[in-house]
Amino acid sequence: MYSNDAPYSSPGEKPTQVTTIAILTLISGITNILAGLGWTSAIVLGTLGIGLICAPITILPAVLGIFEIIYAAKLLPDPPKPVKPSQLLAIFQIVAILCGNVISLVTGIIALVFYNDPKVQQYFTQLNSGE
Question: Residue 90 falls within a domain, yes or no?
Fold first, then answer.
């Protein structure tokens, strides 16, 4: 394998942690969209339309889900698109526990841990340098 100092031979060689982040972010994005739309539908239909006032708050997980899917779509292809590690997205995934999404919480924690791995940091540096 690679030592922490050895550069990758090509930016297409993704560490397994990057693939894991991408797949978990995609799954989290799908669950956040479903949860956001589910909560919004339940509140609006359950209150016979009066809950529409709460829609901007209940739709927030769906918005996060859209950003997660876009980010995962940039990490998954081969060759990957230049993208920086999104620690802010990971933090929002952790905060999504307020909406009851445990999958998003776990994904955010794993992503933050993996972003601090030297191989992952080196991969993102090389990917964004255009080499």
Answer: yes
Phi, psi of 8 (to 5 degrees): -75, 150
Quote the CA–CA distance of 18 and 44 in Å, as a whole number. Answer: 38
**Is the CB of residue 12 less than 8 Å from the CB of residue 78?**
yes
Better-scored residue on pLDDT, 46 or 75: 75
Could you give the CA distance from residue 74 to residue 72 in angstroms, rounded to a whole number?
5
Evaluate whether residue 30 is within a structural domain. yes
Helix (H/G/I), strand (E/B), else coil: 77: coil
Considering the domain boundaries, does residue 9 fall inside one?
no
Report which of 7, 18, 25, 4 is spatially closest to residue 108, judged by C-alpha positions. 25
Higher pLDDT, 80 or 31: 31
1 found inside a domain:
no
Residues of the domain holding 115: 16-129
User: What's the structural domain count of the chain?
Assistant: 1
Tens of pLDDT, residue by residue over 28-68, are: 999 999 998 888 888 888 888 787 887 778 888 999 999 99
